[in-house]
Amino acid sequence: MSKSTLAVIAAVSAATGAAVTAAMYSLRSSDKKTTEIITTSTKTLIKPPVGAAAPVSASQVFSSTRTAVPAAAAALNAPVNPAGLFEYGFPGPVSDIASRQALISSFDRRLRNPQWVVEHITPASLAARDGDRKNSAFREDDMVPDKFRAKLKDYFRSGYDRGHQVPAADCKWSQQAMDDTFYLTNMCPQVGEGFNRDYWAHFEDFCRRLTNTYPSVRIVTGPLYLPRRDPQDNKFYVRYEVIGNPPNVAVPTHFYKVIFAEDAKSAAGGPVAIGAFVLPNAPIPNEKPITDFEVPVEAVERASGLEFATKLPVQRRKRLCADTTCSLVIKEYADRQKAFAKGGGSRLN
């Protein structure tokens, strides 16, 4: 068995045992009132400045299809025109893309979770202290239509944390950036004790410490819903809890981070250190090495249906954990969390 295969199998295993799930995938291969919304038939783009653009109709997007398809159908003497349905609207799927100071996110309306959230951290951004989470509050994202939106009440007494994908601790450089991280479009239900408040927090700290070595670190984070073998019939199933009343928000089985660490030569066409990690949404012992969860980027792509480095040539890529030490600092971070809690604060992510 190859080293990469072993890495993938290890990557989705923890004390709770979600072992071979990702292996299957790797073996083959702002005040928001001033936000502008641009809607197309395939996605909604939310970005500054002021104003809201009128939705672009499906007939506009499919104008070439509307003329070409009937013409082709007539030439073939076809008795049907499926594209005519688009006169009434395009079904989707729709991804709500929000571009904010702190992050860019893509929201999955069906699962009520982000598909991915992108952030950029630097030594300068982490050194700034112009934002305070005491002045921030969790909020629903009114840029997502109400019927598709994750609600605050969905998390109430659910047993899960509102888990940041882009941590608040990464965005202290402005209060607006800090506030941006508290939209529910930047949240997923996460196991609290042993994960969101522990191992995942240490992992986020590891990402910040990468700026001690690299002047620019770009991170994409998101949920996964991976299959697991049922011991009774030996078949694989994708099963996840759904919280809310009515049940709306899917509870991911795993989370991924894909990290792009850039040095001074990267902007000039030099190498970029890439690391991909998949962690189960479950308690993980703090002593477990983060390298046990390292996987090939292709494993995350196959599991998520996303692509992360299509424009980055293979010859420019290097493995992050071969370029630097990938390890968590548990005691130091835990002590800081305890000190913060004594001061009346809460989880720093």
From TrEMBL:
<dbReference type="InterPro" id="IPR020821">
    <property type="entry name" value="ENPP1-3/EXOG-like_nuc-like"/>
</dbReference>
<dbReference type="InterPro" id="IPR040255">
    <property type="entry name" value="Non-specific_endonuclease"/>
</dbReference>
<dbReference type="GO" id="GO:0005634">
    <property type="term" value="C:nucleus"/>
</dbReference>
<keyword id="KW-0999">Mitochondrion inner membrane</keyword>
<keyword id="KW-0378">Hydrolase</keyword>
<keyword id="KW-0496">Mitochondrion</keyword>
<feature type="binding site">
    <location>
        <position position="196"/>
    </location>
    <ligand>
        <name>Mg(2+)</name>
    </ligand>
</feature>
<dbReference type="GO" id="GO:0005743">
    <property type="term" value="C:mitochondrial inner membrane"/>
</dbReference>
<dbReference type="GO" id="GO:0004521">
    <property type="term" value="F:RNA endonuclease activity"/>
</dbReference>
<dbReference type="GO" id="GO:0006401">
    <property type="term" value="P:RNA catabolic process"/>
</dbReference>
<dbReference type="Pfam" id="PF01223">
    <property type="entry name" value="Endonuclease_NS"/>
</dbReference>
<dbReference type="InterPro" id="IPR001604">
    <property type="entry name" value="Endo_G_ENPP1-like_dom"/>
</dbReference>
<dbReference type="InterPro" id="IPR044925">
    <property type="entry name" value="His-Me_finger_sf"/>
</dbReference>
<comment type="similarity">
    <text>Belongs to the DNA/RNA non-specific endonuclease family.</text>
</comment>
<protein>
    <recommendedName>
        <fullName>Endonuclease</fullName>
        <ecNumber>3.1.30.-</ecNumber>
    </recommendedName>
</protein>
<dbReference type="GO" id="GO:0046872">
    <property type="term" value="F:metal ion binding"/>
</dbReference>
<keyword id="KW-0464">Manganese</keyword>
<keyword id="KW-0255">Endonuclease</keyword>
<feature type="active site" description="Proton acceptor">
    <location>
        <position position="164"/>
    </location>
</feature>
<keyword id="KW-0472">Membrane</keyword>
<dbReference type="InterPro" id="IPR044929">
    <property type="entry name" value="DNA/RNA_non-sp_Endonuclease_sf"/>
</dbReference>
<dbReference type="GO" id="GO:0006309">
    <property type="term" value="P:apoptotic DNA fragmentation"/>
</dbReference>
<dbReference type="GO" id="GO:0000014">
    <property type="term" value="F:single-stranded DNA endodeoxyribonuclease activity"/>
</dbReference>
<comment type="subunit">
    <text>Homodimer.</text>
</comment>
<feature type="domain" description="DNA/RNA non-specific endonuclease/pyrophosphatase/phosphodiesterase">
    <location>
        <begin position="99"/>
        <end position="315"/>
    </location>
</feature>
<keyword id="KW-0540">Nuclease</keyword>
<feature type="domain" description="ENPP1-3/EXOG-like endonuclease/phosphodiesterase">
    <location>
        <begin position="100"/>
        <end position="315"/>
    </location>
</feature>
<keyword id="KW-0479">Metal-binding</keyword>
<keyword id="KW-0460">Magnesium</keyword>
<dbReference type="InterPro" id="IPR018524">
    <property type="entry name" value="DNA/RNA_endonuclease_AS"/>
</dbReference>
<dbReference type="GO" id="GO:0003676">
    <property type="term" value="F:nucleic acid binding"/>
</dbReference>
